[in-house]
């Protein structure tokens, strides 16, 4: 239609439906995914393979990503509850300033946590802390800032985000990704201050610790054990056997093994799983929609392209975007890590961390409210990108001139190419 493949138009309708019918996001995303799959099975193809065989081939490439996302979203939902029930968050008023600066330092803490944890875990822990500190009244703009802080913290660390881990596996050195923190730091300084003031005006931060609060060290131990399982599995396999990460959802499995081992010690709140599962199915449906888009390549590598990918990642899964960029080459990998890692924060479903946090705070599922309240995230993204250009400079393939070997990254069906719709 008008030169645009019908696949893209269908996906655009799905995204529009999610934005408009934010009380029915799961139904819209799932039915949209089924519709796109049926269309491609009957009338299209999957990376050149038509029919059911092509669909099965795509699932074979995608199942590891989907499995990891499902395991992490469900596991970290229970982890965040363990953390909140440990009463560790009740101790925060003792160490945080009792004005807007307390909210700002909380966002910085979330970014630091995300630098060595998965951004989903950082966002969930941050959401649990905010729930206590602000007595359950958290502004949508501050929710956007929590997601942005978790994504910014992971953007410069090869173990902080799935996309940066992909770069590491492909041969990008950790130092080449680390420069993303220049942009992330500037972005956090801007949106963090604005969001903290916004939240303080909406609901002031708790000034005093609740009385007679006792830390549940057992639940804190469970949280630590689950996080250690995720981190150690990720780092060990990346160093020793990275190909296994493309064959099995081992990080998600590690989180659940750790969780189940601790059940006799501290039982999780199993009743949280149905709600977390609905949010997970929503995100997996969008990932599947993106995987079925028939794009052959990204635009030519340049800093404007990298800037644009940040906006695209607000509506597309950033994993296939990263894989396409690796296959194409010619990028400054620090810029790319910042763009695809942070850009998804601009809309709540543009990041797995955003979807996870909105399972805790359903009011964040309104795209209009997210954009109105979280405008500072988009502005912060642009300011951070400009800071990278001015202070670091665009240097394709990294500052040491080494080029990652793209073939080492298994390209899921979306890697056949991801569409680049307008943000």
From TrEMBL:
Domain of life: Bacteria
InterPro entries with a match to the protein in the record: Cit_transptr-like_dom, NhaD-like
Residue intervals of the Citrate transporter-like domain: 28-300
Membrane topology of this protein: Multi-pass membrane protein
Name of the protein described by the UniProt record: Citrate transporter
Chain residue ranges for the region called Disordered: 399-423
Protein family according to the UniProt entry: Belongs to the NhaD Na(+)/H(+) (TC 2.A.62) antiporter family.
Regions that span the bilayer: 37-56, 63-83, 103-128, 140-160, 180-196, 217-236, 248-265, 277-295, 333-355, 375-394
Keywords, sorted A to Z: Antiport, Ion transport, Membrane, Sodium, Sodium transport, Transmembrane, Transmembrane helix, Transport
Compartmental location: Membrane
Biased composition (Low complexity): 402-415
